[in-house]
Structure formats: structure tokens, C-alpha cells
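Sanity check

After download, print the first record. It should look like this:
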Amino acid sequence: MLEIKEIYKTFNAGTINEKRAMNGVSLTLNDGDFVTVIGGNGAGKSTLLNLVAGVYPVDSGTISIDGQDVTRLPEHKRAKFIGRVFQDPMMGTAATMQIEENLALAARRGQGRSLRPGITRAEREQYKELLKILDLGLEDRLTSKVGLLSGGQRQALTLLMATLKKPKLLLLDEHTAALDPKTAAKVLDTTEKIVQRDKLTTLMITHNMRDAIAHGNRLIMMYEGRIAVDVSGEEKKKLTVEQLLNLFSKASGSDEADDKLLLG
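Expected C-alpha cells:
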């Protein structure tokens, strides 16, 4: 579903601020893979997602989604393949619009606009059923303005909107980092349910090693713009945080990397 081949990316090339962000990364995700991505600050995690989404062009290498080469496609043309949830809960929703209006926008994504009346009764019933999976009582608040919701409620709604059209690829960029631990756990649980239910191919960045181990069928760890560790299946299920740090130290060749990872 996602094939990345030898991608390189350098920011501010030729200046004192030059930064090699991607250093020949290759990665293949099969249909339905749920891959967690971890690494210290500056390891290249968010850059990787931004390159896949088309926010930045790659310097070299190729990116394909569902067999289609999207390397040169601009961000807005890749959007039809991708659902994305950002770290900031305020980014994925329209605060001045109602919950049902936000969902209607997500449901109509990629469709032509018409002069038909807004939201039908059947759509409202559908949205109520969809909202029940969040277990936040939002199914009874369809006409509430999104700006009145808590950060956790908005992030859960954003997740629902990003997956409403069953994207080819779901990108989660530390989508629970700004939430308190209890709310973060609830959003992660909901993420797991939706990904499993719809068999979505998913890349999830997290700063929490325990979450990276607990969720998904594969874990990759990045270091200095490359993939340092890649574990999956039974090996991943049996991992502990200590074993993960040991793997990382061996792959990076430095104990200093442990400190960067923990600080990240």
C-alpha cells in the first residue's frame, strides 16, 4: 500500500543551517499494516510523514501509494489517498461549525458540490452511529459547535473525520501527545478499533515507547534520518522498553542515542 524507495531530503542545503533529514530511507507497508514510528527529536519521524503527504518534495527517491507513483504529486492531489491527524487537536476541525457539519465536510471530501440542502436525516443517523464508537456522548450533541469541545473530544472527532472515507493510508503524527494520559489512552484505544475494523494501512508516530510496542503489528525506530530498528510479528509482541533501547543502541552504535530517544 505504501512503497518508499531511497528517499533523501536536506533542508537549507549549502548553508550553515544545512540539515540532512532523510538519509536514503526505504520502507514498504503492506495492505492493512499498522506501523508505529519512534525516535528522538530530529530523527526524521515527522519529516517522513510530511514527505509521504506531499508537504515537502523529496530531493531524490520515489513514493508510491497503492501502486501509484505520487512522488511528484502536490499535497492537495495526494489528499484523496490519505487521512491525517496532527498533534494539535485544533488543526483537524472547524471550530465555528457544528459536529454534524464537520462530519458532513469529511463525508463529502472529493465529491462535487451541489445546491442540495445540507444534511439529510439519514446522514444524521449515520453520524450518530459513527460517533458512538468514540464513547464520548457526542452522538447526542450533533449540533454543538466544535469549538466548545475539549481537546480530547476534538482529537477523537478529527480521527473519525480522517477515517470516514477509508483512506488508502492513515498518517498519525503524535496525535495523542497534547492530551492528558487518560484521554490519550482513550483516543489510542479508539484508533486501534477503527484501524482494525476498517483494516486501514497506518503509520503512527509516537513519543511513547510503551505505546509503540503495544499498538500495531510492526515498529520502526528512526535515528539521524534513517531506519535504525525494524521489528514485527512475534518479536514485536515480546519486546520490552529495555530490549528496545538495547536494539537501538546496537543499531545506532551509541549509548547517547538512548538519551536522545528518552528525551524525545
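If your output differs, re-run the checksum step. Summary of this record's structure: The CA atoms of residues 109 and 165 lie 8 Å apart.
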